[in-house]
Amino acid sequence: MSRARADEEEYWHSSKFRAFTFDDEDDELSQLKESKRAVNSLRDIVDDDDDDLEKVSWSGEPVGSISWSIKETASSSSSLEGRDTSLQKGSSSYSALPKQVSSYSLSSLFKGRNRLPSLPSLSDAFSDTGVKNYAPELRRPKAEYKDYSNDWSPRDTVRRMQRGKVCSLERFRSLQDKLVLLDEAVAGHDGNVITAVLIFLKRTLRREVLFRELEVRQVALCHLIHFLKETGEQKLLLDLLRFLDRTEEVALSQYREHLNIQDVEKKREFLKGCIGLPFSAEDISHIQDHYTLLERQIIIEANDRHLAMAGQSEIFRKYPRKASILNMPLVTTLFYSCFYHYTEAEGTFSSPTNLKKTFKIPDKQYVLTALAARAKLRAWEDVDALLTTKNWLGYTKKKAPIGFHRVVEILQRNNAPVQVLQEYVRLVEDVETRLNLATKYKCHDVVIDTYRDLKDRIQLMAYKCKVERGSAEEEKINSLLSNMQIRWKN
Amino acid sequence: MSPLDRIANVSVLKQHEVDKLYRVENRPAPSTSDQLCFLVRPRVRTMRYIADIVNADKMSGRSRKYKIIFSPQKFYACEMVLEEEGVFGDVTCDEWSFYLLPLDEDIISMELPEFFRDYFLEGDHRWINSVARALQLLNSLYGPFSRAYGIGRCAKMSYELWRDLEEESESDGQGRKPEIGNIFLMDRDTDYVTALCSQVVYEGLVDDTFRIKCGSVDFGPEVTSSDKSIKVLLNAQDKIFSQIRNEHFSSVFGFLSQKSRNLQAQYDRRQGMDIKQMKNFVSQELKGLKQEHRLLSLHIGACESIMKKKTKQDFQEMIKVEHALLEGFDIRESTSFIEEHIDRQVSPIESLRLMCLLSITENGLIPKDYRSLKTQYLQSYGPEHLLTFHNLKHIGLLTEQTAGETLTAMESRVSKLVTDRAAGKITDAFNSLAKKSNFRAISKKLSLIPRVDGEYNLKMPRDMAYVFSGAYTPLSCKIIEQVSPPTRSPRAEHRFVRPAPLR
Asked: Which residues of A touch B375 (CB under 8 A)?
């Protein structure tokens, strides 16, 4: 019996919502102890209607009453549904309160109240005017009770919470009260308070009930979702999103988890599992690609690590790998493949052409990336081959899906020799750009030819000082300038 | 850590018996002190780290004192987590109501970068109280504000909450001459364009290149022309900086070289001085000149770094594309530029920035472009950015045009009947009818894009659009200009008006 009493005391003395307490706990505790003593001494003072001091069960029924015994019978025969709610669905399997704490006449204290008595609380007893008449020395200013539980309306409760004051929400037991409280919190614009109320609702409502109510309260819904994300309650979050029929977000939310997985094998498995999720049609192909890419990278990485360690392969010796290819974007993987595995046949997993086919990489992207890789290796013939196409007559033509000024830029960045650069500068279509690049990179022939084509004598003469004295270029300029055939513009 | 640096540095903390400073992370506290004090933002994740530290100590039988100081305020969710983790009774909690940090003579910042994501992406109103309190603080120090203007939902909520706070407090603002007359509260999402355009004034470029944090910047060896890097406070105290910070970059070099010449001339005065004059010179002027010299060389070095970086990145071409997007011309070329930018893997942030600018100015990408650019972005920068795209769509920064917003059949029939130029005007009119939140309509109505005949004069600009080389006037500035009484020239006005007045 005493252990049960201790439990009860524990219940009464602990704050259900301690989170709001900014004050020193000791203060509260000692106050409570005082209140308890005062209440107990009430017994001698209070003039009851009932001679017997009633015991009351958790659901408010006085022990020994008819309603109480019905509940007792019902609970012992039927099984309790396993819900994760708390006292609101008060199961009557709680034993009757022991004499010490609640054996005072509640019915007399609750006289005049229309509502069903809720869980009796100590200070409720004090706010009842009846008590005050009997025990005037127990009156204390309300402020001293530090808000343990009293009559603040939902609006005032929200206000007090906004100012950071202590507020127990336990009194809001009916669904209606809870919703009024929530709506007041939302109207008060303070997300901190909204989240606090939601924490309380989450704890005291069955999830379906909560979800149903939040469905029509957008702002509160956002706060709950954010809260669940922050606290990592993934399961509840997914259930909520499913309830709201936000299937795409369910998929994305699950997919997001992959960022937390470090081990590549596990990640690969996880991604495989993501493919079946309810993504939108276009996103499914992206997830598929992600999985395929990682799978491919694992294979390449394993092979290449062997190759590099074995030391047989020249390219790996000359250009040791600085990082693993795992988790890199597709284009980076393609670059890597063009760098280390350029000549491989399409059948192998690491060949560039295989990658191109598997992931449907457009020509433009492919040429750009391959170009960058081969230029880095200074493999100018490969560059040439990339940019050359053969037409049906067998004539070759230089073509670039990316614009020759880009080609030049890439080559120049990799310190291509002037002869190589020159060839491509020549192919830049826009004349002004061509001149700029040619001048910048000292592709004299191109400059000269361009001025010749433009028939710009003045510029050609001016350019003479940029070339070396006695060089072939100077001679060329001179011969052009003295050419009577050309009809100069200026 | 950066705002803290502006208030107290390590030596001050050491004077108050702080032994060492650590960052709160997901690992055990390396300290051996008996008291640990955590100065944190109220984040659930941080609470878990702290709880881990306390619990680890408990496991190893170690007992210490723990204090958590929440800045700017404590959140109920944080206390819940502490309670959950079983450490609530082991720590004491406090709040440091730090709302406003003065960064400069005329800039005060709340230094709450998380605000954007929490409010605009997650829809969480947690910081509105902080904004209201900051307003209250400002009001009590510099007010009372006579008028308040605002645009946006968050502005309204903050205003209402602030008024509630004012009503409850018994402050008397009477009899004091207010230093701030009007306040403008604007939601960031009323004008994303300003944030998305490349900056071309000096301070903006320094921020782009070096990152200005809390009013200070780290200049590396390439700027200081030595092998050290230094941290420089960039505010109105820096005489050189204060003169060039708002200038268009094209005028900065000229200004700096002029200054250098002047400085040289000052130094050269030494040649013709006698002893008395020299003594005077050394005691009075030399220090100032040396200071100026140091600042000049720093800023010239910074300019050179900026130039180098920008030429490498095709800055000019990108600006051209941005201007085209703002004006609504050459959309196909701009889209191709963006596509190439992505293909070349230039920079994940820049590529996104351009895409968002395209989306906002065109009221969404056409579905074909959206799909294609998204695919290419994922291929270039990583498949996990699927999540990035979803977030951007949710926030409205990067969206797809829905079917109802493209040209209707009637419009295309009409346009066939008239000439090309007229068709453009007609379709513009139809389009603006069809589209909802409309960059073009707003920019037209408020004349945000100046009409210029010939070249825009950057040296003597007639309006505020010079901050974007004449292509666009920031919406917030325009609104303030329209609402405020017209007094001075545009040049003088924009000393008081920045693209984001109250951060």
From this structure: 286
